[in-house]
Amino acid sequence: MHATAHEIKSVEDAARLAVTDNLFAPRFYTTDFAAMDRINIEPVRAEWDAMMAEYEGDNNHDHFQRDAGFADEARELFTKLPHELQQEFLDFLVSSLTSEFSGCVLYNEIKRNISNPDIKKLMEYMARDESRHAGFINSSLKDYGLGIDLGNLKRSKHYTYFKPKYIFYATYLSEKIGYARYIRIFRQFEQHPDKRFHPIFRWFQRWCNDEFRHGESFALIMRAHPHLLRGPNVLWIRFFLLAVYATMYVRDHTRPALKQAMGLEPTEYDFEVFRICNEITKQVFPVLLDIDHPAFHANLQRLFACSQKAEAGKQAGGLFGGLRRALWSVAGAAVFARMYFIPVKSNALPETTRLQPAW
């Protein structure tokens, strides 16, 4: 089943998809605010202050403004897309909005519940950025009469509790792989503007540069607390790296029409993104996934096959459909476990942490 599982035909459908919780849907998080309050960034003070000056300068303050012809162009191009691509693009917009708004909600909640001036100010800036992104995407959904009530989404979405260190690992990776994904798409449309099927793609470079800086923030927090990057915590780093890469691969292959319409082959695109992300994460992670290991690609394909068969069981419903779904979900978990034990590459951390979005 390659098409989007949930048809988006109405504003109710879009809202329902936004609050859905499954393995591939963006989640809303809460955390230990007292632990966040205890973060000490003094070991990286010089790099931190330089980064905060960039946030304060707010070089993207006027970037997320739609021009006069945006909505008309969006609607005209959309009508020319095949139905499957329309649905995949709408699914992309809803999931992207949910992801951006998730960050906005989390950062605002942390800011509201702590007094640490360094972290409080950081959360204010990042919530500002994510709010702009979410609003910008929602405007594109409104062009099709599918705008999402963000207040209702905040009230309705299930929240997952994560320890601060899990927030650091997961959000750092989410921001950095988001940068890698969007910059690769932006570069593709730079070379092939005829394939740009929605005006929102013209903003991807500005958008992903915000994501890059957000990742820098979490990189500095982790470098300021070296215990997060050694000992048993390295096992957690390996887990989150694999979870983020595997989820991306399965999701992109579940909706391949989106990448194909851009002139991108999903597997090649994913591995390009993995390579960019591996290069970026050298700034903070002591291990890198060996994405060139023969078992890595083969097991990603197996994981996708298990996901497809589990989804087919879900769609079939009934007792036997439920059993099929359970069986293939267990099989997928076993494949993931095998991938976890593929040897990783060691990485010596650089003296300075900060990177520039140079891809």
List the helices and strands and how they pair.
Layout: H1 11-19, E1 28-30, H2 33-37, H3 45-57, H4 70-79, H5 83-113, H6 117-142, H7 150-156, E2 159-161, H8 164-191, H9 204-224, H10 233-254, H11 256-261, H12 266-281, E3 287-288, H13 294-316, H14 318-340, E4 345-346
Explain this structure to me?
By secondary structure, the chain is mostly helical. It has a domain at 11-227. Helices cover 67% and strands 3% of the residues. The strands form two sheets. The chain has a two-stranded parallel ribbon with strand order 1-2. The protein is globular, with a radius of gyration of 20 Å.
Write a brief structural summary.
This protein is mainly α and 359 residues long.
How much helicity do the residues have? 55-70%
Q: What's the arrangement of strands in the largest beta sheet?
A: 1-2
Give the SSE string: HEHHHHHHEHHHHHEHHE
Rg calc: 20 Å
| N/C terminus separation | 34 Å
Strand content: under 5%
The residue ranges in which pLDDT falls below 50 over 5 or more consecutive positions are none
- The total strand number stands at 4
Helical run tally: 14
Throw out a few tags for this protein:
single chain, 359 residues, mainly alpha, two-stranded parallel ribbon, two-stranded antiparallel ribbon, 14 helices, 4 strands, 67% helix
